[in-house]
Amino acid sequence: MGTLALLRAAGIGAGDEVVVPAFGTPEAARVVVLAGAVPVFADIDPITYCLDPAAVAEVIGPRTAGVVAVGTFGRPVESVRLHGLGRRHGLLVLEHPEEGAAVADVPQRRVHAAYLDRRLSGVVTPECVEGHSYRQYVVRVPGNGRPDRDAFARAIRARGVACSVPVKTPVHRTPDYLRRAVLPRTERAADETLALPVDAAMSRRDLQRVVSACNALGGLLAPA
């Protein structure tokens, strides 16, 4: 059964609230709305980029009926802690499939990710955990926010490295789901994260180009 069907089967609907992440696509919030409930946004863990169970606990209220968690960039959710939280509060905890989660040749992506982990400097590389598919290889460009990350992205693109901003606007800041939510870790991640290429078809020379372009910048750039 899909997430929507499971919510409905549990009787979750009008008058209920369901905790969802704001970092990522709006799919989880959309499913909650389709069930007739209200999405409530909780902050993320700054390392996993998934819902932080402690942050979820902070937004649980009398109308909270469930939690819909989503893996991020190919990394699994913190399922053990979230399900424990659900048992303590009597909440339904569901893991919604990450949009576009299926990727080709995951073992090769992991090999490429390990290569970048060992050689990149000046950026914060993703934590290596069991089950990570590296659908996207997302680093942080630490600094004072968006200008640093964006200037860094422009500079490595000029050196022939394709990259993208994985989450341009957190869901709670979009017009359809505008909420008065205070999510500092979500917003900081949106300002600092950058997806570097880690496609299975990349050659060692391609990976070396990524490393050389990133390391040549020393991590931070002044705002353009």
UniProtKB/TrEMBL annotation:
The keyword Transferase applies. It holds the Pfam family DegT_DnrJ_EryC1. Coiled coil: none annotated. It comes from the Bacteria. Its cofactor is pyridoxal 5'-phosphate. Keywords: Aminotransferase, Pyridoxal phosphate, Transferase. GO terms for molecular function: transaminase activity. The keyword Transferase applies. Belongs to the DegT/DnrJ/EryC1 family. L-glutamine:2-deoxy-scyllo-inosose/scyllo-inosose aminotransferase subfamily. This is DegT/DnrJ/EryC1/StrS aminotransferase. It comes from Streptomyces physcomitrii.
